[in-house]
Structures are given as C-alpha cells and as structure tokens.
Amino acid sequence: MSDRSVAPVGAVEPLPAFELPYYVVVFSSVRTEGDRGYGETSDRMDELVKEMPGYLGHESARTPGGLGITVSYFRDIDAIEEWRSVGEHRAAQKQGRAEWYDRYTVHVAKVERSHGFARG
Amino acid sequence: MSDRSVAPVGAVEPLPAFELPYYVVVFSSVRTEGDRGYGETSDRMDELVKEMPGYLGHESARTPGGLGITVSYFRDIDAIEEWRSVGEHRAAQKQGRAEWYDRYTVHVAKVERSHGFARG
C-alpha cells in the first residue's frame, strides 16, 4: 500500500476509532533505493484492498530518514487472511521482499479499546 | 511522544517483531499550527516512557500533509495503564488536547502475530 496519506493534503485527518471489534495491521518498513515499479503497484494495491469485505481503511506516513509506517484496519482476522491471499497481493508481497523493501516488520493485533479527539 | 523516528537518520530501521505477548498503541494525529512547547514536552515524554516497566519501544512518522502516526509497543495492558497515569504524562495529554492537537485517534490492541523481514 502507498506511503502517501489516504486523505489529500488539506483534508488530512486520522481515521476514526471504529466500532469494536476490529484489527490493526502495523507495517513498518525501510525501502530500498529507487522506485522499481513500487509506486504503480502500491496504487493498484490501494484500489484492490478497498474491494475486500471487512477492510475499514489504512493510513501511512514516512519520515525524511526513510522509516515508513502504514496502519491498516480490518473488521476481523478472516478479512486480513483473505487480503493476504489475494493473488495480485501475494505477487506484490513477493516483489516487495525481492526488490522494494530493505526490511520490514508486521504486527497483527486485535483492538481492545479506541477513542478519538477532535477540537470543538 | 516525538514525531521523529527513534533511530537517527542513517541508522533507520523498523522496530522488531517482539516476542508475544505484547500490545501496540497506535496514535494517529493532526497537529495545530506552531510548536507551543510541544517539542520540549515530546522530548521529555520520550525520556520518561523509557523508564516505564513493560515499555518496548515506539516509532513515528508524519506525512508532509500533516498526518502523524506513532506506534508504541508495551508488554501488557497494565504497562499501558501505568504510563497513561504518570503525572507528567497526564499533564502532557491535557495540554495536547488544549493546544497541540487538532484531532487524534488512539487504538490499543493486543498483538496476535508478528514477523520481520530483512534483506539477506
């Protein structure tokens, strides 16, 4: 998925606290040098994941130093498993390990509580 | 906690997949304009949290558009509760709502699985 925020600049806001139950997938990564087709595939994954039942949203940011954090939100573990097993996504994951990522960590976690704050 | 990556530029890498059990706290936010003492308090919180039993680490990134994502890792829910209740941290949270954040969302989640990848 893209390193760019889901929301366009000027309309940026955090995704909300969804109604329980739901899961987060934290993907923190450092890229290799160059694009190597990453951008195009990332855009395609952004499209594809939206079609998945149980997908709630995702948000991303990257430091100038190169650490990227993408957090994806899904209704349940089955939705995460289904997304992992989609053919195009599997191919992208494979290419990610072969070309795009120097290193990454994935944490899959079940949300127990969440809340939001917005200035009045 | 700071919007800067924990690791200095040049040594940037994702935090590892910790041994289970552990929790993640995802904090996604949009700041108000200006610093207003945020940077100093953020640095102080970075110091303080490291003293908390059960604290494993945290990593942060912010988009040019202003969406910040900080993911903190703790051994258990008690460690999260203890950190939430530290006096200086409570004061910082209060000032965050009063001055520093336009909006934010917090998700507290128990990690069920995790793994890492590093180029050989």
Q: Can you describe this structure?
A:
2 copies of one chain form a homodimer. By secondary structure, chain A is of the alpha+beta class. The first copy, chain A, has a single domain, classed as Alpha-Beta Plaits (2-Layer Sandwich), CATH 3.30.70.100. In chain A, 29% of the residues lie in helices and 36% in strands. In chain A, strand 2 and strand 3 form a beta hairpin. The first copy, chain A, is globular, with a radius of gyration of 15 Å. A 4-stranded antiparallel beta sheet of chain A has the order 2-3-1-4. Residues 3-10 of chain A have low confidence and may be disordered. At the A-B interface, strand 1, strand 2, strand 3 and strand 4 of A face strand 1, strand 2, strand 3 and strand 4 of B.
Give the topology, please.
Two copies of one chain form a homodimer.
Chain A: E1 23-31, H1 38-49, E2 55-62, E3 67-74, H2 77-85, H3 87-100, E4 101-118
Antiparallel strand pairs in A: 1-3, 1-4, 2-3
Helix pairs in contact in A: 1-3
Low-confidence stretches of chain A: 3-10
Structural class computed from helices and strand pairing of chain A: alpha+beta
Order of helices and strands of chain A: EHEEHHE
Main beta-sheet annotation of chain A: 4 strands, antiparallel
Helix amount of chain A? 25-40%
Give the number of domains of chain A: 1
What is the CATH architecture term of chain A?
Answer: 2-Layer Sandwich
Q: What overall form of chain A do the CA principal axes indicate?
A: globular
Quote the average pLDDT of chain A.
92
Q: Strand share of the residues of chain A? A: 35-45%
Biggest interface pair, residues each?
A-B, 53 and 53 residues
Oligomer: homodimer
Q: Could you tell me the radius of gyration of chain A in angstroms? A: 15 Å
